[in-house]
Design a protein that fits this description.
This protein is α/β, with parallel strands linked by helices. It has two domains: about 140 residues, Rossmann fold (3-Layer(aba) Sandwich); about 55 residues, Winged helix-like DNA-binding domain superfamily/Winged helix DNA-binding domain (Arc Repressor Mutant, subunit A), CATH 1.10.10. The protein is built from eleven helices and eight strands. Strands 2-1-3-6-7-8 form a six-stranded parallel β-sheet, sandwiched between helices. It is globular.
Length: about 220
């Protein structure tokens, strides 16, 4: 059985110095045991294959180079509910995921929560906000940065009308990817992206690409 004196935690961020700083902060509190770090999906897959026990918490950034960190949330759940290499008798509790991101728009917050994140805080949050989020998530509760929660209450209804693929494309538009790059990123035809964008314009009521970027 997996037992730990302190809650175990994995840091996933593509910036090594941010991981280093957060590890130092968590170590200083003497409340958490950081059992692993990763900076890319490939490193995440390798790390979780070697962890003997599920961590209590995963602190996850959204941007992992060119990859979307949110896509790791369902993978982590599947890893601990279906993965055959988990030792017999080992707890298969799924780690709670707390997203820690520079992005503060309500769309990404909503996307993270829909994909299974337990909480979401901004990288501009102060220590009190971070500790509140860690405590809440570890207690099995949900937590969203207070400033971001205020923005969530003003979230336009059109977000809920977008399909998952449309939300993915909108995120890439907001990263200033052109249509050709989006098509390569999603491995689809350019015409397919143009069709999706047409539907996104209709659903959001926006008329220009610049409008979409500002959403």
């Amino acid at each position: 059985m997996c037992k730990a004196e302190k809650p175990t935690l994995v840091l996933i961020d593509d910036h090594r110095m941010i991981r280093k700083g957060f590890r130092a902060y968590l170590t200083e509190t003497n409340r958490f045991d950081v059992v692993g770090e990763a900076g890319s999906p490939k490193e995440v897959y390798a790390l979780f294959e070697t962890l003997p026990c599920p961590p209590a918490l995963v602190l996850l950034d959204i941007e992992l180079g060119e990859s979307n960190g949110l896509e790791l949330i369902p993978w982590i759940e599947e890893h601990y509910t279906q993965h055959k290499s988990v030792p017999q008798g080992t707890s298969t509790d799924v780690p709670a995921v707390l997203v820690y991101s520079i992005f503060e728009d309500p769309f990404r917050v909503q996307s993270a929560l829909r994909m299974g994140a337990r909480g979401y805080i901004s990288k501009s949050a102060d220590e009190g906000e971070i500790e509140a989020a860690l405590d809440a998530v570890l207690a099995g509760e949900s937590y969203v940065d207070k400033r971001l929660m205020e923005k969530m209450t003003d979230l336009p209804d059109f977000y809920s009308r977008l399909t998952r693929r449309e939300r993915e494309i909108l995120i890439l538009v907001q990263k200033n990817y052109n249509n050709s790059r989006i098509a390569r990123e999603l491995n689809v035809e350019l015409r397919t992206i143009e069709n999706y964008l047409s539907r996104i314009y209709d659903k959001t009521g926006m008329t220009t690409r610049g409008d979409l970027v500002k959403l």
